[in-house]
Every structure is written in C-alpha cells, then in structure tokens.
Amino acid sequence: MSESLADAVDRLYAAFESVPRPETIDRCDHCWTEQEAAAVLRPVPLRDLSADELRPYAASVLLTVGSVADFRYFLPRILEIACTDGFNWPDLEPLAGRLRDAEWETWTAEEQAAIRGVLWASWRQVLSGHPDNWGADTVLCAIGNAEDDLTPYLDEWAASLRRTAAANELRDLLQYSTSWRSEVPRLTNAFWDGRDAQVIEWLTGPALRAALAEARANAATRDAREPLVEVEAVFASRGR
Q1: Fewest beta carbons within 10 Å, which of 28, 46, 153, 178?
Q2: Cα 37 → chain centroid
Q3: Which backbone phi and psi does 179 adopt, to 5 degrees?
Q4: Residue 131 and residue 108: Cα distance in Å, rounded?
C-alpha cells in the first residue's frame, strides 16, 4: 500500500528526531537578522515553527545562512511545509535542490528512505489528483533536483495513465510547460537547470507511446480517454 504524505512526513520526523537543535546558526548579517535567527532557535517543538518563521532560513540555507548540521535539524519541518501549503518563497524545487547540496545520499539509510518516502508520496498525490497542491511540472522538477535517476518516477507515471488525473498532468506538462521551438523540446521550468534530459527522452520515446496506447485502449469512459487523446494530438501536431 502506498504511503500517504502525512505518514511519510511522520516517518521523516522520526528518522531525524535524534538530530540536536542548533544553539547558533552561522549567517550573513545582511541576509538574516538576529530576530529571524531567534525565531527559529526558540526552544519549541520543531513542528510548532511556522512557515513565516522558517521562510527566511529556508530561503538562504546552505547559500548565505547555516550549515548541513542545522539544515538536517530543520529539514522535516521544511519539507512538510514545502510539500503541503508551501512557503510562497522559496519554491519546492530549489528547496529540494538543497538536499543535493547537502549530499543527502551520503546520510544514513533510514534518513534517505524517509526523504525518498516524502518525495514518492508527493509524486503519487500528483498522479492521483488528490489533494492538488502542486502539479507534475513542479513536483517532478523538485524530485529531479534531489534525485539523479527519475526512471522509477516516470515509470510510475506511465503505469498511472489510466487515471484521469495522471493523464491530465501529462497533457498539461506538454501543453504549458514544454517548449517545442527547437528540434529537441525542453521543459520550461527554469528550476530544471539543465537536468531535464531524462524526462525529454521519456516524453519523446517509444515506451510512453506504448503506455498511452494501452491506457487509451483500456479506458473505461469517455472522460478517461479524452486527456489521452489530447496528449496524442499534441505529439501529432509536433510531428512526433
């Protein structure tokens, strides 16, 4: 059974519960004030820190504020906020990129599994369409900023195309978040930062076409078939 996002977040807190609260945080005085530092360092349960209190830290951590040590402490709350209501700024994608900066794949197996659990739960919410906090463009880009190999996530998308929500997300990605101006299409979300090659290969490859055809052939209703037909129409209009 797939893990819900709430359960994945709980497991993330449990995996990092032994990380000590920092007593001080290195900072650039121009980027982070004493008052902002005091707000995140106050002795309250991590879950009690609000998005407003954490926003200045999250925006600058591992850039001009903080270290991997304090980032590890605040990470469960940062990811919980980023994957649910959001910070407004920073966006989910660059926050996920801080995981790469922190070399999270060198952390303990339990910690890596808990982080990956949150990524997977967020992705499966997108593919199921409930709740609709973020679209595939945002969540897949965020995952791509943290993970080197997107194959499992793309395979899950292909396998989910019988779901109207998953098919709608693919249609929207192709129509609104993909540039077809050159011979090789590109994803327009700037946070990909050149890491979209694997997704483009999947979008333009035979495996997705086969999954689309199978999903359309087995669609039980017109509503289920309609977004699949629209996806195929996008490809046809681009000569692909």
Answers
A1: 28
A2: 27
A3: -95, 125
A4: 30
